[in-house]
Write a structure and sequence with these properties.
Blueprint: H1 2-11, H2 17-31, H3 36-46, H4 50-67, H5 73-89, H6 93-109, H7 116-126, H8 131-147, H9 156-166, H10 173-186, H11 192-198, H12 202-215, H13 217-223, H14 225-232, H15 242-254, H16 262-278, H17 280-285, H18 289-300, H19 326-340, H20 343-358, H21 363-379, H22 381-387, H23 389-399, H24 405-421, H25 430-441, H26 449-462, H27 472-485, H28 489-506, H29 511-525, H30 533-549, H31 552-555, H32 559-572, H33 576-592, H34 601-613, H35 626-629, H36 636-651, H37 654-658, H38 662-672, H39 676-693, H40 701-715, H41 736-754, H42 759-774, H43 783-800, H44 806-824, H45 830-847, H46 855-868, H47 872-889, H48 895-904, H49 915-928, H50 930-937, H51 942-945, H52 950-957, H53 962-974
Helix pairs in contact: 1-2, 1-3, 3-4, 3-5, 4-6, 5-6, 6-8, 7-8, 8-10, 9-10, 10-12, 10-13, 10-14, 12-13, 13-16, 14-16, 15-16, 16-19, 18-19, 18-20, 19-21, 20-21, 21-24, 23-24, 24-26, 25-26, 26-28, 27-28, 27-29, 28-30, 29-30, 30-33, 32-33, 38-39, 38-40, 39-41, 40-41, 40-42, 41-42, 41-43, ...
Length: 975
């Protein structure tokens, strides 16, 4: 059989496809024969062709991986001997590599102690005076330890002594490479003793990497991964060496050696960014910030070679702004600093460099300064919003009209970043910025695609909190023109995406444009050509947005057609992105006209279940020829495991499945994970689960206690990631901004829980949590803390108004919360005042008549505010709060005095979401006392001022009787 097998393997290298197909079929048949193991061993030992020896070792590895449990003990021991013999006598490195992977599979099934000959060989070869023997031994060691690192732990101390010696063997770069790979694998499994031993190895490691870079940059790039593992180590062994590591990264990443590849520079700079992320306090303490910035800024502002452009300035539709190159890595380092360092400490170093760049006449200097402002926006958002928004926006605005397109492009990117992260404050500058953006978008066909992409990015972010109505006609004219007239598919795709963003901001104001938009989208949605696919998927996404925003009456006639469209597309086009979009479309349609989905539920759920079972998008990185992957189909062990799992799932009852490790998993990781960012991500995910699933999350009563207690622990700073003892620099000032974000994520969960369970169930936990929230409302706290405190209190009260028992709980809490909210309306910051006014309205709504004795106090506060307040959003929320008081207990409100004052501030100017509250109040009052309403509201000029809300008002009128509608209509005509 061995001779036949060698012949079959030799045919795989033939140029004839028919021969290869026949050989592959023969291999699959032979692979099922138990004798295949012995035959492959014979080929591995005896073939004179190294390619065949390698192929045989790959096949043998697949057989061992899938059938080890079925092999008898004698065959296993025989196989171990043959493999080790083959490895020792092999002279070709690529065959040794495959054999080492075969050894690794065996070690994964059995501990190294069960293979004494392997351990003996590793000990002898790695300590050999022969350089080649050391290379071979370290290759094998790296592979077997990577496959099963835990059983090797008793040998770690001995291995570290070995590596300390190997790392000084600078004339043997291959040995250095495999030594560092093994260190990388070992590091996460080392205990305190081994890590302390590792301290003395780090300087030798850095020197070894420098020598490896000279010998093989690709291997050095891979070996650099050792830094990531060391940085993540719980025992901070690298702290004494951080300055040395920073210098090494800067020397490689931004040094003058022109022989170094971009991929190596990128890997090194990315390692530096990761170091800053995990050890920012030490970087600050050791005064390395200035050194790093002085090194990376020249990279950030570097001009490309003559006649070339930076990738982001090229007119390349496929370019990704996050493509890795050294210049982008420099920006990522600054971004990481902004996310993980206190702004006050960072800005003293970075702003002088940035301002110098912005003042330069050199376009690439200006570009570098603008990119710097852009990447600071996320991590330093609060600092910029409250202390330097206008000074940051000014150079960005100026850049949009710069004569150099490189500067304009960077300015558009910066504006997009600022618009995304500095909301809602950045919207104050809409009068300055929107005309610039609209002017830029008016010449879409002449602009570079890369610039147009950034312009749309800025526009979509800027619209998030914008009063869009004044700009809506121009925006839609521009977008529809692009859809109908542009030949460029990318511009069409961007325009369709922008229409979705506009619809989110405009809601029912989009009704006049709905028909032409749908006409344009239909042409894209039915296409079957590959080049139209991105535009088609974006059109589906925007169609989903329109379904959710345009209004049920307008969209409902299209609902059935949309469902059929989605089913037709998934039947005819095999594309995962397109299927994802159809799922979103079904979800959107279900909010408009759920009945139209009923006939198609079987088809829809079948597609979704197949998607859940699919391994699409999950790729295996195999080094072998694809021919051998086919042999993996014959995987009996895996089939058995899959069958067992299916049986297990079938046996589970619904009650068992309701109690799955999700909430407990969230809770445990919030408490124990060392990474603030990870904990924030977990809290955000937990909040999303609670928001989506509501009471289902708390079917198990223990979950309410677990979630409440973990929120309490975060607010008390008792989790591991908030414990200074887990950081190497206990004496350093806390990362205030990052810690504040962590508290906010925890606080956001409280109103979500309050809205998901009966109030009486949550009340005991709420009593424990409220003092922690209220403590952040003190005048000595920061603006962000005060805003967070009163905002969270307000959302809790709003949630209590929606659940059973909420009124009684809100009433009991009113004596504690009223003073906090009243103090908040006198705050110097508009956002704090806004949240406090909203909270007072929510208190009146949630507690109802229970707090009627507090109405005089609340009305007095509001009366004083009306004479002094200038912020439009605060005034709008004040109007809404008065309306909530009236809706909850109108008998306790002196309407003769309050209603004229309320109407005088209408229509709302900034917070359009409160229109529903205002019009609900006016409708209720009209039903109760029409004369009072008509006298105060229907007067000349009011409806002229309120034209902006006529669509909302007409929607409200439809809820009245015909007689009432006639009276209002006559009054409108008279005015």
């Amino acid at each position: 059989m061995a001779e036949d097998l060698e012949h079959i393997l030799s045919q795989l290298s033939q140029p004839d496809n028919a021969v290869i197909q026949q050989a592959t079929a023969q291999l699959k048949q032979a692979f099922k024969d138990p004798a295949i193991v012995l035959a492959l061993c014979t080929v591995v030992i005896g073939s004179t062709n190294p390619e065949i020896r390698q192929s045989a070792s790959v096949m043998l590895r697949l057989r061992v991986k899938n059938h080890w449990k079925k092999m008898n003990p004698n065959d296993k021991e025989s196989l171990k001997g043959v493999v080790l013999q083959a490895f020792m006598q092999e002279s070709e490195h690529f065959v040794q590599h495959s054999l080492s992977q075969l050894c690794a599979v065996i070690v994964k099934h059995e501990t190294p102690d069960c293979w004494p000959a392997l351990m003996q060989f590793l000990t002898g070869s790695t300590k050999s005076s022969n350089p080649h023997d050391r290379q071979v031994g370290l290759l094998l060691l790296s592979k077997v330890l990577e496959s099963n690192p835990e059983p090797f732990k008793p040998h770690y101390t001995q291995l570290l002594q070995l590596f300390s010696s190997v790392l000084q063997d600078h004339n043997n770069p291959t040995a250095l490479y495999y030594c560092i790979l093994t260190l990388t694998t070992m590091t996460p499994y080392m205990g305190t003793e081994e890590l302390n031993q590792m301290r003395s190895v780090i300087p030798k490691l850095i020197i070894a990497l420098k020598h490896l870079i000279k010998a093989n940059q690709d291997q050095a790039c891979e070996a650099m991964e050792v830094f990531i593992e060391l940085f993540e180590s719980e025992v901070s062994i690298i702290v004494p060496h951080i300055a040395e590591i920073v210098d090494f990264c800067l020397e490689v990443g931004v040094g003058s050696d022109t022989e170094l590849s971009d991929s190596l520079r990128v890997k090194t700079l990315s390692s530096l960014a990761f170091l800053i992320k995990l050890k920012s306090k030490t970087v600050l303490k050791q005064k390395l910030v200035s050194r790093i910035l002085q090194a990376v800024f020249p990279l950030l502002v570097a001009e490309p070679p003559p006649g070339e452009q930076d990738p982001e300035d090229q007119d390349d539709n496929d370019y990704n702004m996050e493509n890795n190159n050294p210049k982008n890595c420099a920006a990522q380092i600054i971004d990481t600093m902004a996310l993980h360092m206190p702004p006050e400490k960072l800005f003293q170093h970075i702003m002088p460099l940035t301002q110098k760049c912005l003042a330069s006449e050199n376009p690439y200097q200006k570009k570098g300064g603008l990119i710097c402002l852009a990447v600071l926006a996320e991590g330093c958002a609060d600092h910029i919003r409250t202390k330097m928004l206008s000074s940051v926006l000014l150079p960005v605005c100026q850049s949009l009209s710069d004569s150099n397109e490189v500067v304009r492009s960077a300015g558009l990117f910066a504006l997009g970043q600022l618009s995304e992260h500095l909301q809602p404050d950045v919207s104050q500058y809409c009068a300055d910025l929107m005309p610039m953006l609209l002017n830029y978008l008016s010449s879409l066909s002449q602009a570079k695609i890369s610039h147009v992409t950034k312009a749309f990015y800025a526009l979509e972010n800027f619209m998030e909190n914008l009063d869009i109505e004044p700009y809506l006609p121009t925006l839609m004219e521009t977008m529809l023109s692009a859809l109908n007239n542009s030949e460029n598919l990318k511009i069409k795709e961007l325009s369709v995406s922008a229409i979705g963003a506009i619809a989110n901001a405009a809601m029912e104001l989009m009704v006049p444009y709905f028909s032409p938009v749908i006409i344009s989208l239909k042409g894209f949605l039915t296409s079957e050509t590959e080049e139209m696919r991105p535009l088609q998927t974006q059109s589906l996404d925007t169609l989903s947005v329109l379904a959710r925003t345009i209004g049920k009456d307008v969209f409902s006639p299209l609902a059935s057609e949309c469902v059929q469209l989605g089913l037709n597309l998934t039947d005819t086009i095999d594309d995962p992105d397109l299927r994802r979009c159809t799922y979103s479309l079904y979800s959107a349609v279900s909010t408009v006209n759920p009945d139209c989905l009923t006939p198609h539920l079987t088809a829809i759920t079948t597609i979704m279940l197949l998607a859940l079972k699919s391994n699409e998008g999950i790729t295996a990185h195999l080094e072998e020829d694809k021919t051998f992957v086919l042999l993996d189909d014959d995987d009996d062990d895996d089939d058995e495991e899959e069958t067992d799992m299916e049986n297990l799932l079938e046996d589970d009852t619904e009650a068992d499945l309701q109690d799955v490790v999700v909430i407990p998993c969230f809770v445990e990781n919030v408490r124990k994970d060392h990474e603030r960012q990870v904990v924030m991500g977990i809290l955000e995910t937990m909040n999303s689960v609670i928001k989506s699933c509501k009471e289902a999350v708390f079917i198990n009563p223990a979950h309410l206690k677990e979630v409440s207690h973990v929120i309490r622990d975060v607010l008390k700073k008792k989790t591991v990631c908030q414990d200074g003892s887990c950081d190497e620099s206990d004496g350093e000032e806390q990362q205030a901004e990052y810690d504040a974000m962590l508290l906010e994520f925890a606080g956001e969960g409280i109103p979500l829980v309050a809205a998901a369970v009966p109030a009486d169930n949550f009340a005991p936990f709420l009593n424990d949590l409220l003092p922690l929230i209220m403590s952040k409302a003190k005048s000595s706290c920061t603006v962000a803390e005060r805003s967070f405190s009163v905002g969270t209190i307000s959302e809790i009260l709003q949630a209590l108004a929606t659940v059973s028992g909420g009124r009684q709980v809100a009433g009991r809490l009113s004596t504690r919360l009223l003073p906090v909210l009243v103090a908040g309306v006198k705050d110097s910051d508009a956002e704090v005042r806004n949240n406090s006014v909203f909270g007072l309205g929510c208190l009146a709504e949630a507690a109802g008549p229970i707090v009627k004795s507090d109405y005089p106090t609340m009305l007095s506060v509001f009366s004083n505010m009306l004479t002094k307040e200038s912020d439009l959003r605060v005034i709008d929320n004040l109007c809404a709060a008065l309306c909530r008081m009236i809706l909850s207990n109108f008998e306790s409100v002196p309407l003769e005095q309050v209603l004229p004052a309320l109407v005088a501030r209408l229509p709302l100017k900034a917070d359009m979401e409160e229109n529903k509250t205002v019009y609900s109040c006016l409708t209720m009052l009209y039903n109760k006392s029409p004369q009072l309403v008509l006298h105060n509201i229907i007067h000349p000029g009011f409806f002229c001022q309120s034209l902006i809300f006529l669509s909302d008002f007409h929607a409200t009128l439809t809820s009245l009787s015909e007689e009432q509608q006639a009276k209002i209509g006559a009054a409108i005509s008279a005015s």
